[in-house]
Design a protein that fits this description.
Helix content is 8%, strand content 34%. It has 207 residues and is mainly β.
Length: 207
């Protein structure tokens, strides 16, 4: 079974329908930014207000929608491309908030910043499926990855992000992000456990 990690459709899923972690000194604390927006006239708009829409113009509601998204809870739980592929995605408020604090009528992304870099945003993905090997035996496959927005002082060299001290953060993905951990389990192929762990650190916080 081929590794599933680089299927670009992953990021498109979020685009189609649209733990507080410690940050490094160059990062903006997104909770503090949100508080500053709240202090402005009108404050932040919540999903409960019924006034927020996704990128297709559909009103966002609490709970799961027909596509498997629960924007209030920062989770997607549903199919991935094919019915026999199941995907669970989780993200933090910097990746995609459950509020609109900048007044554009959409859920905020990297609030207060021009890009995801330095935002502390993270996303996790957990795929599961079953397939049959060459002998017709049923096999189970699962893959779990952690993706983070790189810090402001990170450098990309030949497709890999490094921190300010030259320590590897992880392989680059989607330009502003790095993979910091990958776990693959496929007993039929003899694959089991961690296949990649960031030499910097595999945790989602302190980026």
């Amino acid at each position: 079974m081929k590794k599933f990690i680089y299927l670009i459709g992953l990021v498109l899923v979020l685009a189609i329908v649209n733990t507080a972690c410690e940050k490094n000194q160059d990062s903006i604390n997104q909770q503090e930014v949100e508080q500053s927006f709240k202090a402005k006239p009108g404050g932040c708009t919540t999903i409960q207000s019924g006034n927020l829409v996704d990128s297709q113009g559909n009103t966002i509601e609490t709970g799961y929608n027909d596509f498997g998204y629960n924007y209030q809870a920062h989770i997607y739980n549903g199919d991935y491309g094919e019915p026999d592929w199941h995907l669970v995605m989780k993200w933090n408020y910097s990746w995609l908030s459950n509020k609109d604090c900048d007044g554009d009528g959409l859920l905020d992304r990297h609030l207060g910043l021009s890009s995801y870099i330095g935002s502390g945003a993270w996303l996790t993905n957990h795929w599961t499926t079953t397939y049959y090997d060459e002998d017709g035996n049923p096999c189970s496959y699962s893959e779990f990855i952690k993706i983070i927005a790189v810090p402001t002082d990170a450098t990309s060299i030949n497709g890999v992000w490094y921190n300010a001290d030259g320590v590897e953060i992880g392989p680059s993905i989607w330009g502003e992000f790095a993979i910091i951990q990958e776990i693959i389990n496929d007993p039929c192929e003899g694959t089991n456990g961690v296949s990649y762990k960031s030499p910097d650190h595999p945790g989602l916080g302190n980026w």
